[in-house]
Design brief:
- The chain is mainly α.
- It has one domain.
- It is built from two helices and two strands, in the order H-H-E-E.
- The protein has a two-stranded antiparallel sheet.
- It is rod-shaped, with a radius of gyration of 37 Å.
Length: 105
């Protein structure tokens, strides 16, 4: 009889230990997932900030003033109004209606 009681107590202790183990394991996993979620949120925030910064850099780099300054540094000049020919393509409706600029030779 005492042996059966010991086995029963041992089984109860093992079951309680297993339940506690699962509980602790779940809490550890939940904490790890919480850290991963927070890291992912921070990465999203960093990427969003980098995207905003790079968009502003692109806008600055492509601004007409900056392009004009760079063109003048490269030795480009404005063409004479008489040397600019505007070609207007108004032929067939099935072709794309594009406007092209060309310099007279």
């Amino acid at each position: 009889m005492a042996k059966k009681k010991r086995i029963l107590y041992l089984q109860i202790i093992l079951m309680i230990s297993a339940v506690l183990f699962v509980f602790v394991w779940e809490n550890i996993q939940a904490t790890k997932l919480g850290y991963r979620i927070e890291n992912t949120r921070q990465e999203i925030k960093d990427f969003t900030n980098a995207n905003k910064y790079l968009s502003k850099e692109i806008q600055t780099a492509l601004s007409p003033e900056k392009l004009q300054k760079k063109a003048l540094m490269l030795g480009m000049i404005y063409p004479e109004p008489a040397s600019v020919i505007i070609l207007d393509n108004k032929t067939k409706p099935d072709k794309k209606n594009l406007r092209w600029f060309a310099w007279a030779q």
